[in-house]
């Protein structure tokens, strides 16, 4: 697995990371068997050269950090651990945003304990809290860096103004944002700003929450706690229109001797050496399939065709419900 650099401060990670959220939260049922499979998948990722693992306190809440910590016990030196702060959690439920500096520092200590590590490699603000100046947020993370509890600072779903203001106070190494073949909302303004400032991009949901693999069903076939149950792109006519897009991606994949998912990941990787997608899975078979995308080189004609068939006006439905969009800083 090749390595890529995120930001100018020295953070280097595998070209593909592993999103761990779905191992504990948002997709499907969980239990001891699922946890065992997830831990085995994390161990297999390390064997395949994947060293970048993404989690957050809100995933579970807390359960995902504990699972990742359990999986990395005795293997910490081989992993780059990214986690996030920014939500207010009470009675084991997310009740809103909270990025007050004192909260950030408390979350760092709690996350370190759950993960069983001495330092967080990349600490993201999960969502922008407009009640707290971003300068105060960046300053708090800077204090954690000085204290040796955090190595690098990241933002998630932040807009250009927020990114610039934060970066002036403490260098931002990476922006995490939804970015994929069918979700390119950051292309016009955010991505150019990242490159101007020397900030890496970490796309989450690079497989369209699984849709771009073609191995999905309509939203109403999933459990109510499953994100796909309410995902607008999985609903009704949107589902049918988007499956037609997947069929077109699959045709290119067959020509390349690959799967639709591998083509979607190869497209994301081709957007720049500063782009590190973090597809999520709890299954070793899907992990192995995803990792092969790092070796898939799409031609310029393939990339142009993908850009055309997945143009924004060809995608049916928004990426979030109104409630989800309320936390996006643009």
Molecular shape: globular
Supply the CATH superfamily name: NADP-dependent oxidoreductase domain
* DSSP E strands, number: 11
- The CATH architecture is Alpha-Beta Barrel
Separation, N- and C-terminal Cα atoms: 34 Å
Could you describe the largest sheet, including whether it forms a barrel?
7 strands, parallel
Q: What fraction, in percent, of the residue positions are helical?
A: 25-40%
Low-confidence stretches: none
Strand order of the largest sheet: 3-4-5-8-9-10-11
CATH class: Alpha Beta
Helices, by number, come to 11
Order of helices and strands: EEEHEHEEEHEHEHEHEHHHHH
Give the DSSP E fraction (strand runs of 2 or more residues). Answer: 15-25%
Derived from helix and strand composition plus strand pairing, the structural class reads alpha/beta
Number of domains: 1
| Average pLDDT level | 96
Q: What's the alpha carbon Rg, rounded to whole Å?
A: 19 Å
**Annotated CATH topology:** TIM Barrel
Notes on the protein architecture:
The longest helix has 21 residues. The strands form three sheets. This protein has a seven-stranded parallel β-sheet, with helices on one face. Strands 1-2 form a two-stranded antiparallel ribbon. The chain has a two-stranded antiparallel sheet with strand order 6-7. The radius of gyration is 19 Å and the shape is globular. β9, α5 and β10 form a beta-alpha-beta unit. α4 packs parallel to α5. It has 330 residues and is of the alpha/beta class. The protein has one domain: TIM Barrel. Helix content is 38%, strand content 16%.
């Amino acid at each position: 697995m090749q390595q890529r650099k995120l930001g100018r401060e020295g953070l280097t990670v595998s070209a593909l990371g592993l999103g761990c959220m779905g191992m504990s939260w948002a997709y499907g049922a969980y239990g001891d068997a699922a946890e065992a499979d997830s831990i085995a998948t994390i161990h297999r990722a390390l064997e395949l050269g994947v060293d970048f693992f993404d989690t957050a306190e809100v995933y579970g809440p807390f359960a995902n950090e504990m699972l990742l910590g359990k999986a990395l016990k005795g293997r910490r030196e081989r992993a780059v651990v990214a986690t996030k702060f920014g939500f207010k959690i009470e009675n084991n439920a997310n009740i809103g945003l909270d990025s007050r500096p004192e909260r950030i520092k408390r979350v760092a200590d709690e996350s370190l304990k759950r993960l069983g590590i001495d330092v967080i490699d990349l600490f993201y603000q999960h969502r922008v809290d407009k009640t707290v100046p971003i300068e105060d947020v960046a300053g708090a993370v800077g204090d954690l860096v000085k204290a040796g509890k955090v190595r690098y600072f990241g933002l998630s779903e932040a807009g250009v103004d927020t990114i610039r203001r934060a970066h002036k106070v403490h260098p931002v190494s990476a922006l995490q944002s939804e970015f994929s073949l069918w979700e390119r909302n950051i292309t016009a303004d955010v991505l150019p700003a990242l490159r101007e400032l020397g900030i890496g991009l970490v796309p989450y949901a690079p497989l369209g929450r699984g849709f771009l693999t073609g191995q999905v069903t309509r939203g109403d076939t999933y459990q109510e706690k499953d994100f796909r149950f309410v995902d607008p792109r999985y609903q009704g006519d949107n589902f049918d229109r988007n499956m037609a897009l997947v069929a077109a991606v699959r045709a290119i994949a067959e020509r390349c001797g690959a799967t639709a998912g591998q083509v979607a990941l190869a497209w994301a990787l081709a957007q720049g050496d500063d782009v590190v997608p973090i597809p999520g899975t709890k299954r070793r078979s899907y992990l192995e399939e995803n990792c092969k995308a790092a070796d898939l080189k799409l031609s310029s004609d393939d990339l142009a065709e993908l850009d055309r068939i997945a143009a924004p006006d060809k995608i049916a439905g928004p990426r979030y419900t109104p409630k989800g969009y309320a936390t996006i800083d643009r």
